[in-house]
């Protein structure tokens, strides 16, 4: 409230000092407030003419600087803590969206696997499908509570919620037709797959949701890691003021120490060090969570979904058997898609290998890379059999017992699950460390700043008492 | 956060207004533009010429007119012969497991060429004929290797020798004669309408007005519709990106990659009718008792067995097999196969098309 007139005063030429012999100053047009301000300034100036007055002013300035420093530190510290806390919480939400994405992709893969097995679906595949749908439903209702109402994420959740029952209905139709050996079942399965994985389908919505929540996590991590520059600057300013006041005190009195001001200096230094240390530790924790956890998780989750999509495509090559061709008009669409998905999977795994920061993270990624190579070989064997019209052998290569695509895919999936669990643990541990570092800063800053202000006033008061 | 969502709402309003404008514009403009492309007037654009050319070709085949390249009807084939020649001799020299006829077939056409997942065996009308040819060439109906080929691969697989013959609901046409040799016709097919039994649609006529018709991308059915769409059906030709449908009808439901996908849309109530050739329509009807073929076929096409160009001895032998296959009236092998696979949906038949032979070859 005192700012506007203050600014105005510094901009306008210095007012003429009110000397008794001089003529009264010409009143400015905006006389009212300016006058009050000038009267206040005049009183200060008069007070500054005597040493006790000057001391009082110094004491007030010191106390003000220290209190402002403490308040800003407490505010920025609690703000950073809140952001770090959001990072830990958001990490769980991001994990849930990744799990949702994975469960939906897995449901589609299980549906195709069971379908390919023939009119009687294996009961383990059926129960895996049911489990995926149930898990997706649970995750969706949990996520709906954790995203802001009216946000884009909420719209995505609503879209998935609306389309999932339609998808499961289509799968049941496909199963019913398959049970009667009708090729129509394959057409329904393709249609359902399109609703799940197609451009406007459920999986792209789940992917958007995951991307959006990851971006929000990054934003929250970024705001927690932003240096509280204002607090640091104010801390340095408060320390400089204290130093100057003590130097002046030394010059005036030849006393080296003023106990009050000294303890104020110590308290202020403590707050500043605490602030720097907490921010640094928090920064390191959150940076680790991002570098060692989150970045790996993004590529690993992508790899998991690409593996599942490729597996669904592989089954669909045997279900559609060339009845849907790619853009070139010759190659089987799902064969082309399988190639594209495994290429993406490969790239993801190479990325994950680069990001893996320890042996525990690297081992499963290397195992997954190895399994993908095997998978591609076996898939090629299946494709050759399929092209030769040996459907039974092709199915055996892809879904039979022993050295099959199925088994290689299962290895990929297991290795990825291990890698994801490891990185998720790293993320959570590091993010919690980061949050812990910032935990009590706000309280410490507030208490120490009050102590410092009181000490400074007492220190000045001691000098002041010498004038009575 | 609150600020951001406030801004989103603001943009949502702008988007909604934009969408409303777009919808209004589309509703007023689209019908006009469709009238423009629908009428084959002097202002017709190049794609329409292309469509008409394709359509004329189909009509030519139906009318059994002469092909410009050969000066003979497309259906005319080499006279039958039970003898052999270089192609058959080469096939007979195959040893052991390879001593088989390699036949390019479809594995997804129910009742025609279908790999039954329950039995892992190929079955259907085309497959029966392939067995008859194998019996004639190798003396064993099961001396046969089925190789699934896609529609576009049929002629290339023949040319590079991966398959000996193709028996795959393949229409004889002047264009294809440049890439393959055909036997005499073994089946008369035509485009036909398929709709729910309860539907008001009675065939390829004015009952199709404002009905959503599903076709396979690039199929003869959509080419027929595109000629002039005389009955005002809603359809979409994805390969040329033209068609006629109101905004609320999704083009992805009108134009699909495979004809069987049309039955999915029909069952889900996303379209009112399907236009495909009657052979495939029959296969669809066989899978859904609630739909049936409506009216009569409105085009005429002939299916033939294809062989590599120059394999004259093999073509003459196939024609010989077909002569026997067709003979015997109601007791013929052809009739028995028809009764087994097709009669239920296509109804009684007047028998196979009469063979036409090239003079003096």
UniProtKB/TrEMBL annotation, chain B:
Keyword Membrane among record annotations: no
GO terms of biological process kind: amino acid transport
The keyword Transport belongs to this UniProt entry's keyword annotation: yes
One Pfam family hit: SBP_bac_3
UniProt-listed CDD domains: PBP2_GluB
Solute-binding protein family 3/N-terminal domain segment(s): 100-345
Keywords, sorted A to Z: Signal, Transport
Chain positions covered by the region annotation Disordered: 55-88
GO cellular component, one term: extracellular region
Name of the protein in question: Glutamate ABC transporter substrate-binding protein
